Amino acid sequence: MDNKVLIFGHKNPDTDSICSSLIMEKLVKNFNVEAKAVRLGNLNKETEYVLKFLNLEAPELIEKVSEGQNVILVDHNEAVQSVDGRDEAKVLAVVDHHRIADFKTIEPLYYLAKPYGCTATILFELFKQNGVEIDKTIGTLMLSAIVSDTLLLKSPTCTEKDVESVKELENITGLKANEYGLEMLKAGTDLSTYSGTEVINLDAKEFSSDTKKFVVAQVNTADIDDVFSRREELEFAMEKEIADKKLNFFVFVITDIINTNSKIIALGSDKSVVEEAFNKKLDEFDSMMLEGVVSRKKQIAPVLLEAAK
Ligand code: MN
Ligand code: MN
């Protein structure tokens, strides 16, 4: 067991999960708590870009926690997305911006949930409320996370709070969100070095309703056709995942960050749930175009969960 409080985001960590873990580490250390940011998976290229830009080391990779380990969760709360062994760990605090599902603890805790576009926006507010200095490094981590989660403030998940925070963070860091942020997002769209299996696992989240279990995986791109040209390889990987995890269906979302649209591919014995959810037929490639849809959290997962009831 680690004596320090371990801070982590969800599995398949995205930029918000990694940046918010590092930001939270700084905040709790400020209250003289021994803490360490860790991660539950590989960094994606977007997050690698951020850490390289700041010359920061990636948080240590962990796979499970032992009984009684003190932990703080950021950017998630659902057990399936969290560390293995979490039910036996002691959750001291949660800072999150997702729906709350199947969340149970043994002891009381700090739980801060706000429907902002990014966990880092909640942390930005916490730093200010507690009078903790936001230096350029922390400011850049915050800015990066917000740009990532809100797709440069264009996602429907983006709130006025996120917009205001980015304005202030541009002043603190001297960075322009439109310039630095676009470079960062573009760094994340390079899928050329990944196998089909890796691509569908880069940002995959599992969901379950009472009767259905499914995964929604998402990648960002500046060119949907470019990713879609790997359809056969991706479908092969999806089929394997469906069999291995006994999923009812798997949805792969290819999101165009420039035009803010998504094309999805849906496979699995219950893929009709997807047609029902979006009230649209899958074409001969098991795909459909979803105009204006970019947010898994707000525009995809809720409708799928509703249709899967
Ligand atoms: Mn996240
Ligand atoms: Mn987030």
Describe the structure.
This protein is 39% helix and 19% strand. The chain contains 11 helices and 11 strands. With 309 residues, the chain is an alpha/beta fold. It starts with a strand and ends with a helix. The chain folds into 2 domains: 5-186, inorganic pyrophosphatase (n-terminal core) (Alpha-Beta Complex), CATH 3.90.1640.10; 196-307, DHHA2 domain (Diaminopimelate Epimerase, Chain A, domain 1). Strands 3-2-1-4-5-6 form a 6-stranded parallel sheet. Strands 7-8-9-10-11 form a 5-stranded mixed sheet, with helices on both faces. One manganese (II) ion binds next to loops.
For this entry, give a set of tags.
11 helices; binds manganese (II) ion; 19% strand; 309 residues; inorganic pyrophosphatase (n-terminal core); Diaminopimelate Epimerase, Chain A, domain 1; single chain; alpha/beta; globular; 2 domains
